[in-house]
Amino acid sequence: MSLLSFRKPKETAAPGVNPQLEAFLKDYSIEVMPRTAEKVENFRDLLPEGTRVYIAHIEGTPIEDMVATAKRLAADGYKVMPHFPARIIKDEATLADWIARYQGEADVDQALLLAGGVAQPHGDFHSSMQLLETGLFGKAGFKRLHVAGHPEGNRDIDPDGTDTNVADALRWKQAFSETCDAEMALATQFAFDAKPIIAWADSLKEAGITLPIHIGIAGPAKLQTLIKFAIACGVGPSLKVLQKRAMDVSKLLLPYEPTEVLTELAAHKAANPDFNITHVHFFPLGGIKTNANWAIENGGSSAVPASQS
Predict the structure, then answer these.
(1) Measuring CA to CA, which residue among 34, 91, 92 is closest to residue 58?
(2) What's the alpha-carbon Rg for the chain, to the nearest Å?
(3) Which Gene3D superfamilies does this UniProt record tie to the protein (predicted)?
(4) Residue 233 DSSP one-character state
């Protein structure tokens, strides 16, 4: 697409924008679903060309809807990264079919591989590692593969509350990344407190997990909405940040914004340039437009340089 046809989002960032936060938001990504994408008349009014847009594949969503959304976003100039949830993929033939559809209609070469929030697998797969082991993404020439990270653990994977299975999986993924031609990174569940996030990221580095981290952050939304999603998604100790806010009558009716957690993470990144959190990934729980406008107002630019695409 010609750059001349791209309408740049309205720049509202004021001179007083925190420069550390602005730098930390550079090249952020955002997540959509087919049904939420349908509500956006024109993504180019909200997101700069080159933004990485994840497409969440929720159980029951037809692959045709996923591919149609990918095709639309790709045509608008975005880097499309659909989810491949292992537990809703019946078998290797289905996986190959999905890959072929995405590539044939939307020229997709990036994917987020995850187990998926389904209790019982629909077929042969139950983990992202099994998807990687098929070798199909490598054969298809995928350039970037992201896998899930869990700053506050995952009860589905470790029901006993430890991180034993998660840690084993991360070591496996680290080893796989060292033999894989695609660029790999961790895309995480969202959390609300910077200190546990920093401690988790540091612990990975100490354990030899050097995969770059794209930290999941919930975008601006009503407090009640965030608490509902946080409980449903198994967010851990940092949920207390929301619960404490809910007890403050003066803040109860105000929309939550991720300014505090991101400002603290940005300051840590500025003081520690080798900090392994490299990107911000937004979950727009209060709406794509609301999230995109917040990013613009805080200096965020999500245009991904060609060399990092």
Answers:
(1) 34
(2) 19
(3) 3.20.20.220
(4) T
**H-assigned helices in the chain:** 19-24, 34-37, 63-75, 92-106, 128-133, 136-139, 164-177, 194-206, 223-232, 239-246, 249-252, 259-271, 288-297
List of domains in the chain: 18-308 (3.20.20.220)
With a CB cutoff of 8 Å and minimum separation 6, the contacts of 30 are 47, 51, 52, 53, 54, 219, 281, 282, 284, 288, 291, 292, 302
The answer to whether the CB of 93 falls within 8 A of the CB of 125 is: no
Task: Answer whether 37's CB lies under 8 Å from 282's CB.
Answer: no
pLDDT given for residue 116 in this prediction:
87
Helix-helix angle 259-271:194-206, to 10 degrees:
40
Low-confidence ranges of the chain (pLDDT < 50): 1-13, 249-250, 303-309
Q: What is the pLDDT of residue 5?
A: 39
Pick from 92, 148, 138: nearest CA to 116: 148
pLDDT value, residue 82: 98
In which residue are the tokens 């969202």 written? 190
pLDDT at res. 16 = 74
pTM of the predicted protein model: 0.86
The span from the CA of 122 to the CA of 87, in Å, is 6
Distance of CA 111 to the CA centre of its chain: 11
H helix or E strand, kind and range, residue 281:
strand 277-283
